[in-house]
């Protein structure tokens, strides 16, 4: 061990010794200040840590209170309880850490300062005292005169005793200094090492705790991702409902009447009315009235029990009241009493009177489920109170879409479990679903099923026509073809687990699809004949100029598919005269029939089956091909790598294009000539399809092998409608890019124009033939 102060120098009491003492004393004084500061900081840290533990414990108790409050939500309650228990453990670990810190830093260093430094100070005082005494003895000894023998001896004796005492005390002081310098290293390092081990134990305990909690947190995170997706979907649905209600509110004050037809609670109509009291003052009070369960009742507050005005509507009549001063009054008269009521407007009065009259009529006929359905259809609450003069071309919502889709065979009950009155639909499959099955379909992912509400969402006309082209019966003949053979029983309503297993097997694994021999291709000779026929037709068209014309026989205006549903060409091509422009058609109807002679789905692979069916506008066969694994973007190498979507364009069906797009067709996939669906629709003059492709994100800047984009083709053909759509879409795109509105649909004018074209293409396609008809005049 290296000595701080040498003992030999101590005996000499040399200047080096004094200098060493001065340096050591200054160092010890500074050490004392540092240690005192460190102890005070440690005490403050411990006090703050204890306050943190108290606050953390209060926070943890708040989490437990929230968990108890969420007792109706098992996931939230379990998670919060587990987290609060883990936080409580961490609080305990923190408490142990602060206790060990207090023992290692505060206690040890304080003891070092109080004990060892105090001994050093005491030794220093004694040394300074004896040093002063020695100095005095030396001075006195030096001052004694030689002739005074007695004083010389006395001074000599005092000096000898003082030197002896000085050496003893100085050696003790030096010893104390060296011991202190050695001990302070061990004490400081010992306390800090103990403090760091306390932290090590704390973090190990926390790591072990959260390692056990980690798998649960990971599972909860995955579940939370699903909850976020569901919450986003619910938010969109709520926003759509909010928008619908807001539009309804702004359209007319009368639309604020709240009404509903619901077999579950029996409510036919409900809303606020003024009721005249039967007392002597004849006061009028505003109450919430409803027609439900064959009774007329009202409430003042929601929690109040309804007051029955009419016990049985079959025994009462309703009539206008024009003989009183108040406006919009009507009277409900029963054999025992009459009730005078006042609506907010004439339209609402008529609605209430009609609702009461209809309820009276249906009350007589109400027998079982059939009568309940009749009640729904006859009730005025199934319709809107908005003016009947509004355009019928607007997007269908709510009950209108529900009634139209449910009228398709099989759609009156859930496609998967059979529950009556389904209010949800899978738009890419074309089926109706109950609310529980719709939730299971959502969990499959949009690449299997896209779910929409038949009552809350807005339905575009082409999408509604798509739903009406398919239906539960058509789809179940494909996806449940082997259910009976396999002895599988469909799940019943309420069997959630069984439903999930069945729906996954049906749509994801496709276990019940009849896997006939579809892998074999048609004979090579047939393939060559079909390919040659198509190639000849394409060559014959390519030789025609924009003004050339083709003679075709009048096509049949109505065709039937396998489901028995009549199909009409969506762009109104059946209404064309026998002479049409070469820019309008690629091939004649007779040739088209010839090309389908070789179509036999039993011998085609799924991709080719989808390809052929897309041209023939046969949605059931297209759905069957997809069920057998057809690639929706399959390219026919024998016919310029055309896709089913391009074939749908050539076939002229807007609904067929919509079906392929809903099932993942690439709207920008092009053939060997560099032409995509938008190119072909522009060449053929199919305005409705052009509008649809632009809405679905088609790239109108793409050019074909001749360097022409769709706008150039439309301008050369002088098709005003398509030029308008393309230029409007391009202008809207440029405007959104300049304003940084990426992902936004565009301004209201752009949306209104495209909405009008969509409505026209689906409901009045003959209006879009003016370009083709005008071309006949020149």
TrEMBL record:
* Annotated Polar residues bias: 379-388, 557-569
Arf-GAP domain spans which residues?
399-520
Q: Where are the ANK repeats?
A: 640-672, 673-705
Q: What is known about regulation of its activity?
A: GAP activity stimulated by phosphatidylinositol 4,5-bisphosphate (PIP2) and phosphatidic acid.
Question: How does the record say this protein sits in the membrane?
Answer: Peripheral membrane protein
Renumbered to this chain, region (Disordered) spans: 367-400, 542-579
Q: What is its main location?
A: membrane
Function according to Swiss-Prot or TrEMBL: GTPase-activating protein for the ADP ribosylation factor family.
- Designated name of the protein: Arf-GAP with coiled-coil, ANK repeat and PH domain-containing protein
At the highest ranks, the source species' classification is: Eukaryota, Metazoa, Chordata, Craniata, Vertebrata
């Amino acid at each position: 061990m290296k000595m701080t102060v040498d003992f030999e120098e101590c005996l000499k009491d040399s200047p080096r010794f004094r200098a060493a003492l001065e340096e050591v004393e200054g160092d010890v004084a500074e050490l004392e200040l540092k240690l005192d500061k460190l102890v005070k900081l440690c005490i403050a840290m411990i006090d703050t840590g204890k306050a943190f533990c108290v606050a953390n414990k209060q926070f943890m108790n708040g989490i437990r209170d929230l968990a108890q409050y969420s007792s109706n939500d098992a996931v939230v309650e379990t998670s919060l309880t587990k987290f609060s228990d883990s936080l409580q453990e961490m609080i305990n670990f923190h408490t142990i850490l602060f206790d060990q810190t207090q023992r290692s830093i505060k206690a040890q260093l304080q003891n070092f300062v109080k004990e060892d430094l105090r001994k050093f100070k005491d030794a220093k005082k004694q040394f300074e005292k004896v040093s002063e005494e020695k100095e005095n003895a030396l001075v006195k000894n030096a001052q004694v005169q030689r002739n005074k023998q007695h004083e010389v001896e006395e001074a000599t004796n005092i000096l000898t005793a003082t030197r002896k005492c000085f050496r003893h005390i100085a050696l003790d002081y030096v010893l104390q200094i060296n011991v202190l310098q050695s001990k302070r290293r061990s004490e400081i390092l010992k306390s800090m090492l103990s403090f760091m081990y306390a932290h090590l134990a704390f973090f190990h305990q926390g790591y072990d705790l959260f390692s056990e909690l980690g798998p649960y947190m990971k599972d909860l995170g995955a579940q939370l991702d699903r909850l976020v997706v569901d919450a986003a979907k619910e938010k969109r649905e709520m926003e759509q409902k909010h928008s619908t209600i807001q539009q309804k509110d702004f359209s007319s004050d009368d639309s604020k009447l709240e009404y509903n037809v619901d077999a579950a609670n029996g409510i036919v109509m409900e809303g606020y009315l003024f009721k005249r009291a039967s007392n002597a003052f004849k006061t009028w009070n505003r109450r919430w009235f409803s027609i439900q369960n064959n009774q007329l009742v009202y409430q003042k507050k929601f929690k109040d029990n309804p007051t029955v005005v009419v016990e049985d509507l079959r025994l009462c009549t309703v009539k206008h009241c024009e003989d009183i001063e108040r406006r919009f009054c009507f009277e409900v008269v029963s054999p025992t009493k009459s009730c005078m009521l006042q609506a907010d407007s004439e339209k609402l009065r008529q609605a209430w009177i009609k609702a009461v009259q209809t309820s009276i009529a249906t009350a007589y006929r109400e027998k079982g489920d059939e009568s309940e359905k009749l009640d729904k259809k006859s009730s005025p609450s199934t319709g809107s109170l908005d003016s009947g003069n509004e355009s019928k071309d607007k997007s269908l919502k709510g009950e209108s879409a529900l009634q139209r889709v449910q009228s398709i065979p099989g759609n009156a009950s859930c496609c998967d479990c059979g529950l009556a009155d389904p209010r949800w639909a899978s738009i890419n499959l074309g089926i109706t679903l109950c609310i529980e099955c719709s939730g299971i379909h959502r969990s499959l992912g949009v690449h299997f099923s896209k779910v929409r509400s038949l009552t809350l969402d807005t339905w575009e006309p082409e999408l509604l026509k798509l739903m009406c082209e398919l239906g539960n019966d058509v789809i179940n003949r494909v996806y449940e073809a082997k259910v009976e053979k396999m002895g599988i029983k469909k799940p019943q309503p309420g069997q959630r687990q069984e439903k999930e297993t069945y729906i996954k097997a049906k749509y994801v694994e496709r276990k019940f699809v009849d896997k006939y021999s579809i892998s074999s291709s048609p004979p090579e000779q047939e393939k060559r004949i079909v390919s040659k026929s198509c190639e000849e037709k394409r060559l014959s068209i390519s030789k025609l100029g924009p003004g050339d014309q083709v003679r075709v026989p009048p096509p049949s205006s109505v065709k039937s598919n396998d489901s028995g549903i009549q199909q009409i060409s969506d762009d109104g091509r059946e209404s064309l005269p026998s002479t049409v422009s070469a820019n309008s058609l690629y091939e004649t109807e007779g040739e088209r029939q010839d090309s389908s002679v070789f179509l036999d789905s039993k011998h085609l692979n799924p991709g080719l089956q989808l390809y052929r069916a897309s041209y023939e506008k046969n949605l059931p066969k297209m759905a069957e091909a997809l069920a057998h694994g057809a690639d929706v973007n399959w390219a026919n190498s024998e016919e310029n790598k055309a896709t089913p979507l391009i074939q749908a364009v050539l076939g002229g069906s807007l609904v067929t294009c919509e079906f392929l797009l809903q099932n993942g067709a690439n709207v920008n996939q092009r053939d060997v000539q560099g032409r995509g669906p938008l190119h072909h629709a522009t060449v053929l003059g199919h305005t409705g399809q052009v509008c649809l492709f632009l809405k679905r994100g088609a790239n109108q800047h793409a050019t074909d092998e001749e360097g022409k984009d769709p706008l150039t083709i439309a301008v050369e053909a002088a098709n005003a409608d398509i030029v308008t759509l393309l230029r409007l879409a391009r202008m809207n795109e440029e405007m959104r890019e300049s304003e940084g509105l990426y992902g936004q649909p565009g301004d209201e004018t752009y949306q209104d124009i495209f909405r009008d074209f969509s409505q026209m293409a689906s409901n009045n396609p003959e209006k879009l033939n003016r370009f083709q008809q005008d071309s006949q005049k020149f």
